[in-house]
Amino acid sequence: MFKLNGTVFMPSVLTLVGIPGLESVQFWIGIPFCAMYITALFGNCLLLVIIKSERSLHEPMYLFLAMLGATDIALSTCILPKMLGIFWFHLPDIDFDACLFQMWLIHTFQSIESGILLAMALDRYVAICDPLRHAIIFTHQLLTQIGVAVTLRAALLVAPCLILIKCRLKHFRTAVVSHSYCEHMAVVKLAAEDTRINKIYGLFVAFTILGFDIIVITLSYIRIFITVFNLPQRESRLKAFNTCIAHICVFLEFYLLAFFSFFTHRFGFHIPPYIHILLSNLYLLVPPLLNPIVYGVKTKQIRDRVSKIFHFKYPS
Predict the structure, then answer these.
(1) Please, are residues 288 and 72 in contact by the beta-carbon 8 Å criterion?
(2) Which of 65, 136, 236, 289 is within CB 3.0–4.6 Å of 40 for a Cys-Cys bond?
(3) E strand or H helix at 98, and its extent?
(4) Does the pLDDT at position 83 exceed 50?
């Protein structure tokens, strides 16, 4: 890399700080993070094995759940190994192109997860509001098309973020990234040039994907609640509502953390950096950890299958 007028020209290597202000205790922070990652891997892999092996679970709701589990595994794996390398082994350096690739993977998988949550909400909407047509609408062919569309939407919309950084930004004030992974705005803020286009496109992607998805999900659940409350029998209302509780919990945990992280990066100037970075890390680690637990507890078929597996392994 070359320094010119106090700036770095086209840095080949970036340095990830980790959690600014908490460098002295990062080793200990890595322990619960690693435990969360291992638990998330185990829970989501178990979920995938159960759904694959149990033919009665080859229904749209569970297949979407399998997609969500696979995405969670990929998303957490994108950040944890490198993060633990920073925390435990003092390996903060990352190639510039590798940083951009990690950024693309993280934001792509985040967008895929949002798209799957949208598909799950629409699945519940049809199942409750128009149950007779559910099997006709949500065929395996449609599920495949949804998976492909969600993946292409995410990959193609996120890719220009990398291209704009690579092609537009040549001079950087520093090569030190005050973050524990390569996040779009954290890298853009390093530039010594005009970054308005980068910021505007980042906002466009966020509102096109997360904004659109959360609006449609909210409207779907408003319609679901109206239908549920109009059911004549109390038992029917409770049963229909119970099938939505797990989905609502997952939606809230994902989108509340997502929007907090998004807005604090752009407008939270008075929030200490370590709080923002910690919450950004938790945003990527908590959903993969909690999703299999929430669905495992609230879904009887999955709960029964898990009980059989562990009863077989550890007979009383």
Answers:
(1) yes
(2) 289
(3) helix 96-129
(4) yes
